[in-house]
Amino acid sequence: MIEQLRATHAAAAQIRRLSDAAKTKLLLQLAQAVEAACDAILAANQLDLAKIDDADPKKDRLLLNPERIAALAGSIREVAALRDPCGAVLLDKILPNGLKLRKISVPLGVVGIIYESRPNVTLDVSALCLRSGNAAVLRGGSDALQTNRALAAIIQDVLEQAGLSRDVVALLPPDRELVKDMLTATRYIDVIIPRGSDALIRFVRENSLVPVIETGAGVCHTYVHESADLEKAKAIVVNAKVSRPSVCNSLDTIVIDSKIAPAFLPLLRDDFEKWKVEVFADPVAFDILQQAGFERLQPASESDFGREFLDYKCSVKTVNGLPEALDHIRTYSSRHSEAIVAEDTAVCRTFLEETDAAAVFANASTRFTDGGMFGLGAEIGISTQKLHARGPFALEKLVTEKWVVEGEGQVRW
Amino acid sequence: MIEQLRATHAAAAQIRRLSDAAKTKLLLQLAQAVEAACDAILAANQLDLAKIDDADPKKDRLLLNPERIAALAGSIREVAALRDPCGAVLLDKILPNGLKLRKISVPLGVVGIIYESRPNVTLDVSALCLRSGNAAVLRGGSDALQTNRALAAIIQDVLEQAGLSRDVVALLPPDRELVKDMLTATRYIDVIIPRGSDALIRFVRENSLVPVIETGAGVCHTYVHESADLEKAKAIVVNAKVSRPSVCNSLDTIVIDSKIAPAFLPLLRDDFEKWKVEVFADPVAFDILQQAGFERLQPASESDFGREFLDYKCSVKTVNGLPEALDHIRTYSSRHSEAIVAEDTAVCRTFLEETDAAAVFANASTRFTDGGMFGLGAEIGISTQKLHARGPFALEKLVTEKWVVEGEGQVRW
Predict the structure, then answer these.
(1) Is this structure's pTM higher than 0.90?
(2) Is the ipTM reported for this complex over the cut 0.90?
(3) Domains in chain B, start-ordered, CATH in brackets?
(4) A375 to B93: CB separation less than 8 angstroms, yes or no
(5) Beta-carbon contacts of residue A407 (< 8 Å; ≥ 6 apart)
(6) How far apart are the first and last CA of chain A?
(7) pLDDT single digits (tens) A138-149
(8) B contact residues 14-43, partner A, Cβ 8 Å cutoff
């Protein structure tokens, strides 16, 4: 295993040296190879699927079909078309002593990814790493082993055909012990990205000596201020909750000014009934919602605030004005995406300034927190940490900086 | 303790809201207050010094005197004059759906610093944090307790006089258990910076759930290529080794092309004798150095490569050309600062591209890796990691990014 990491670390120089055009070409060849190998991928995928119970929700995450494979190839072509993040000159100056100083963007080196059953990660992440000149060490879940092996072989064949080492992208066996080896391989892996359940992310964070970029949970609030246009607020809240509840930028808690709660909350009834949204309401909101005839209604317990539902469920918190709303959000937010709906522009400005989150919204749905939506292209996830990458963690952040200093014999006494 | 962290986390909003001018003013007041309290600081420092044995090297690190206090005040004024890193608009565009998207630089929030006996850290780091709109939680060593208390009280008095909470800068008691509490306080501390011994840094890295910025060891090589101007090479090598051997950017290993080793190595003799530099040489170099009459000479053992000497000591490795030199450096470098001396510009270019380090030099001393030298002002240290801050970790990196999105009711289905 250390042999594999050493080989990938050495091979990283090969992908680092490629020009923008060569990396683009490599990705286009990969997209084509994935399409050409459709049958082989599906056959491998069948072997994995056969081991999973039909009722297991993992089955859908694991499943590939011709449409999904075509979509994966399409994603690779999109990444191919993104701008190369390497080689940017971030600073260029001559120091008073004559030294020529430049700061340039360079690949991170070797990116380690630890993920679970989704085999699409194998291709998505490899494409992002190769596009940005990085080598990759992949450690996927055992459920997807045959599929991942088939996909990794395609990637490695394309690398080899391009005259590069197969070690540029390595797939490790799904052995638990190897995860620990990855997390301590500070000499060979430059950054580790965990993708999957909270438990996986927590394990990686707690055990990694290699720096980690975490794409964490989203406990997202939408605060409806008393100055809100209620129809706008309704559209935003409904969209943020029901358009795709399983993702991290979906709404978890409605924070509502008590003054307008009786006018606003009943407006949600038809949509919430249609989408079968279950509501956990604080006492003030509970009475209003009950009177308005909400059927899927429960009193909120303390644990319903700060809870990431990832489902057709949300909590409602009544507040008396902006300071109370900010305070609630400060206490329960996971600092992912937070929104206000208000016509009062001063209130919006205060909210945007005071709320500590990767993305803050005025009069828009939190569902927009997304690399594609923000114009950054494909993303590895949404970072809720503050170092290096905050918010959409996209191609542009798969680089580091390097100081390059050229002199004519300068010394410093 | 959690109460203190919560209070500092809440108070962080106060310093975050200050304008550039208000932060500058605060720092100038702090510099003045430090000068005015010189006697009180020295009295507190005496209490700490009295507990340390005269022979203990810690004593000098701990010692303050009027000159050192004046220098500390001067450093605070230099930080005051630096450009505010907050509020920079890093991206500003209107998305096709009409959303107004901006990415702006904002303070990290609460910076935790864990350090050892140097009391200057208390002021240096507080100044950098306040200048960049951050609150700080300081955990200094028990040796400097009285001095740190005196300095923290001065900072807190200045904060209070400016109408801010004293909790913006908190000094924790030097209790071992509290360090663990800091390292797990992900809700209240945004980043932890360890400053001090390798053992401290390793402990923090291994135990922190809060993201860490590490300012690590520097195992620095200077490679003298066969095309080198030997007088230039001599000046650079001698400077990199002896100008300040106790710091991380000083030279640890001379890598020398075997072709020019007999001509080059003897040139170092007079300077190395003058500075009493002890040399650990590989067999080829050993013979040359012995013939040249080097007195402080030993055969190198394997552990003398990749060793950070922090002293008037270095190792010498003989190689046959650039590829071997790159390979040696790849194996033993801590990726801090690496240099080549060569007149062949193609060789220099290859070295600068192929060497993976925070700073790479052609024909200059590695001693230049420094925030001040690079024009960034005071630094917290030199980061050898690749995320967020690489190389001099200065004021400009004490910020994070925030995505601010303003709409008119946009939703995403």
Answers:
(1) yes
(2) yes
(3) 2-214+388-406 (3.40.605.10), 220-368 (3.40.309.10)
(4) yes
(5) A98, A99, A100, B361, B362, B363, B364
(6) 46
(7) 999 999 999 999
(8) 17
